[in-house]
Design a protein that fits this description.
Belongs to the LamB/PxpA family. This protein is an alpha/beta fold and 254 residues long. Helices cover 39% and strands 19% of the residues. The chain has a single domain, classed as Glycoside hydrolase/deacetylase (TIM Barrel, Alpha-Beta Barrel).
Length: 254
C-alpha cells in the first residue's frame, strides 16, 4: 500500500489578525509546521495550536524562518552564519518549551518561506540551519524540498531528512517552486490539486508550469494554511488519496 504524510503551515495568526483555520486543518493533516514567532505567530496563539495538535495526535514541527514579521518571512535575507544559527536555535528552543507545556514534543524542523527556498540551494545558509538543528537536538528530522541539494547535504551531516512536495504550488521544470510573484504560482482549485497529488503518489511525477513532466520523490505533502481554500484543498487531497488506497500517516510514526 502506498503511504504518505500530509502537512500544513499553522500557528501564523498574530494577535487579533487571524491567518487560516488551524483547528479545522488539524482535523485533516498528520503533521503541523508551527510558526515560531519570527515570520508569524504569537506565543498565546502558538500554544493554542500546539494544544489542539496534541489532542488530535498530530505530529509537531518547528517552522523556523527569517526574522521578518512585516514580510511574513518571504523576503530574501542574508544573515551572517552566527545570526542564522542563533535565530534557528532560538526558534526551536521556544517551540520546544511551548510544546512541552501543551503536552507534546517537537519532532522535526521545516524552514519557512524565503529561508526554505534559500537553503534548498544555498550551501552556506543550509549548513547554518543544519548546524543549529544538530546543536539543539540532532534527533530532529529536517523536512526539505524534494530534489534540492540540501537533502543530501543534511544527510551527509547526519540528519534524517524527509522530502516534501507542495500540493498547491506550481513547479518549474528544474523542480524548483515557481516564484509567488508570477501568475499561476499558487493553485487554488481543490480538484486540480487533488488530482496532481494522486498522480504524484502513484507515479512519482508532476506536471511543471511549462507543461513538461518532472519526477519527484516525497514522503510528505504540504498544503499551505494561509490560502482562502486551504482546508477545502487539504480535504480534497486527503479524500483523493484515501479513496484510492493511499495510507496517510505521519513520517514520525514509523
Amino acid at each position: 500500500m502506498a503511504r504518505t504524510d500530509l502537512n500544513s503551515d499553522l500557528g501564523e495568526s498574530f494577535g487579533p489578525w487571524p491567518m487560516g483555520d488551524d483547528v479545522s486543518m488539524l482535523s485533516v493533516v498528520n503533521s503541523a509546521n508551527v510558526a515560531c514567532g519570527f515570520h508569524a505567530g504569537d506565543p498565546a496563539g502558538i500554544l493554542l495550536v500546539l494544544r489542539e495538535a496534541s489532542k488530535r495526535g498530530v505530529s509537531v514541527g518547528a517552522h523556523v524562518g527569517y526574522r521578518d514579521l512585516v514580510g511574513f518571512g518571504r523576503r530574501n535575507m542574508d544573515p551572517t552564519s552566527e545570526e542564522l544559527i542563533g535565530d534557528v536555535i532560538y526558534q526551536i528552543g521556544a517551540m520546544q518549551g511551548l510544546a512541552k507545556a501543551a503536552g507534546t514534543t517537537v519532532r522535526y524542523v521545516k524552514a519557512h518561506g524565503a529561508l526554505y527556498n534559500t537553503i534548498a540551494h544555498d550551501a552556506r545558509q543550509a549548513a547554518d540551519v543544519i548546524e543549529a538543528i544538530k546543536a539543539i537536538d540532532p534527533t530532529l528530522v529536517l523536512m526539505a524540498l524534494s530534489g534540492a541539494p540540501i537533502v543530501e547535504q543534511a544527510r551527509a551531516a547526519g540528519l534524517r531528512v524527509v522530502r516534501e512536495v507542495f500540493a498547491d504550488r506550481a513547479y518549474n521544470s528544474d523542480g524548483s517552486l515557481v516564484s509567488r510573484r508570477l501568475p499561476g504560482a499558487v493553485i487554488h482549485e481543490p480538484d486540480i490539486v487533488a488530482a496532481r497529488m494522486l498522480r504524484l503518489v502513484r507515479e512519482g511525477r508532476i506536471t511543471a508550469i511549462d507543461g513538461t513532466d518532472i519526477e519527484l520523490e516525497a514522503q510528505s505533502i504540504c498544503v499551505h494554511g494561509d490560502t482562502p481554500a486551504a482546508v477545502s484543498i487539504a480535504r480534497a487531497v486527503r479524500d483523493a488519496l484515501v479513496g484510492n488506497g493511499v495510507e496517510l500517516k505521519s513520517f514520525n510514526d514509523g
